[in-house]
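Suppose you are handed only these lines of text.
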Amino acid sequence: MATYRSILIVDDDPIVRSLLRSYFASLFVKNIYDAADGSVAAEIVRDHLDALDLVITDLNMPGIDGVQFLRNLHDIGFRGDLVIASGESEAILKTAGSLAAGRDLQVRGCISKPLTKNNLDEIFLTDRPTAAPARIRQTIDAVVLAGIINEAGIVPYFQPKVDVRTRKIVGAEALVRGEDKSLGHLGAHQLIPAAREHGLMRDLTNVMITKVLKQQRAWNDRGIELNLALNIDPAQLREMDLPDRLADFAQDLALKPQSITVEVTEESFHSNFLDVMDVVARLRMKGFCTSCDDFGTGTSNMDTLESLPLTELKIDQSFVSKGLTHTFADAAVHAAVRLAKALDLQLVAEGVETTDELDYIAEQGVDIVQGFLFGPPMAAYEFESWYLSNHGYVPDLSIDTEERAAHRRQHFKQKRQPVNY
Ligand code: C2E
Ligand code: MG
Ligand code: MG
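From them, the structure of the protein bound to magnesium ion can be written out as follows.
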């Protein structure tokens, strides 16, 4: 639950202002300011910039409207929480939320009017992370990172991929992790941006390819046959020798290319598309599987997808978690399913965390799932003992299908609003 000391309510409707005043008074907020339009609101924010810790704003107001006001909040340098409460359509509300987050404002949530105690409580009485105070990240020094890459500090973790129907563990995605004496354990969100910044992505990718394929050889030798997926950055996907390097290495280790998947994100398709087509075509000709990662977050169109010989689509986790509750995400999942069927692609859903999400995804016809529900990314030895203790299959999660279906229907009805970020 959030505790606020000073807040600002911005709404042209006096009834809404008074309702919100009473609501926040009941939460013991000490200073409650209000404004009927964006220009008065901007003045209040300027005057109380250091003290204000929440602004709750309408979108449709006379004079400076809510969207302009969001821009002002950014320009003034407001660092508190932001909630957008509006009677506009879900699409406009969502766009306003994304705009605000894109302008580095800390969006705590968006509420569809009419305001009720329930939808206010959902935002203000639950512990929810606000959007990260964007773009604050500590980068790893170039020399330190080069040391980590060259001195065995890169460690691939493996996250299981499970067949929805048979529950068989069919593969694993390799995700980069690092170990450093002074920095400790490092995640992909630290290593990847730093490697890009310091021009070390090729080296990092080579180390990952080497380690992952050697691990696959070791597992094959112990009777564990899995398809292993590697993530390839957009810049590496334009290296014309990538298919040859990968094929030579697989051959040296006597690995079947069909047991290796190259995951590329939609972001890779944005420039030099001919080079991307060239590399992806040659990867396929050499027998590797090719996957479009984070599907739905980019802007690839039908033409792009049709002109690439892909074998897999991975629906981004944001659609998995919101598909149950948001019309747009649900429609995106349906579109992905149709597209995968039309292009004969294996469909994977990533980021499956709950049995409700699993039920939803399974019902849509997704083939493979990946997510914390089954297993987090694990070091190779942890993955192996987890795999062996499960005898290659994850436990059956369908405890009471009828009861869960009823729960899901209820959940779907109740949770369509508000739109949260
Ligand atoms: P990705 O390829 O889409 O990988 C999935 C990410 O989602 C992983 O984050 C994974 O830990 C996380 N994840 C898996 N299941 C769940 C879940 O149920 N819930 C939630 N909330 N998250 C889940 P990670 O390991 O931090 O990697 C982030 C991204 O960094 C990857 O996204 C990928 O784009 C990139 N990456 C990771 N390893 C490599 C690599 O070796 N090379 C390149 N080029 N990129 C990599
Ligand atoms: Mg991936
Ligand atoms: Mg992904």
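What can we learn from it? The first strand starts at residue 6 and ends at 10. The mean pLDDT is 88.
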